[in-house]
Design brief:
Number of strands: 5
Structural class: alpha/beta
Radius of gyration: 15 Å
């Protein structure tokens, strides 16, 4: 059995696009989608009602239960060291990396709750999380095409059986 690949990265690095590409021929779990299905509400609503701490506890449980070739995580999963440690222990962690300006261009017109805080606040979050993403087993250039990133993952997976 091959180890699961955990896909991490900041908002706008292309995790969702990669998920859509990979799920055509692979078993893929998106933790944010799984969370919303189980909670029966979207993540921003859950945050408002229950707070970030409750969300992070549920996110951790889902992470540890996820069983798929590829597990796509939310950008904030690295906020808890134990999540990154767990992923590295149980699989291979792949970070998608993109310069902040490119991330911002991709997300600035979205309805993501954090975008409402403005460019400067989002950039501060990006800078805080970037060293955490760098702890991944592999850091991939997310400016490449989704197809190119997927093919890199396939090659890496062949070597991690």
């Amino acid at each position: 059995m091959t180890k699961p690949f955990y896909i991490i990265g900041f908002m706008g690095t292309g995790k969702s696009s990669l998920k859509r590409y990979l799920e055509k021929s692979n078993h893929v779990v998106d933790l944010d989608e799984l969370f919303e299905t189980q909670a029966q509400m979207d993540i921003p609503t859950y945050f408002e009602r229950h707070g970030e701490e409750a969300f992070r506890l549920q996110e951790r449980k889902l992470l540890q239960q996820a069983d798929a070739a590829y597990v796509v995580t939310g950008g904030g999963i690295v906020e808890r060291d134990e999540n990154l440690d767990w992923m590295r222990e149980h699989g291979v962690v792949i970070a998608l990396d993109l310069p902040y300006e490119m991330c911002w261009d991709r997300i600035k017109d979205s309805d993501r709750p954090l975008v409402r805080h403005g460019k400067v606040a989002v950039e501060a979050l990006y800078e805080r999380r970037r060293p955490l993403y760098a702890r991944a087993d592999y850091v991939l250039d997310a400016s490449l095409s989704t197809e190119a990133i997927a093919h890199t993952l396939y090659r890496l997976k062949e070597g991690n059986t």
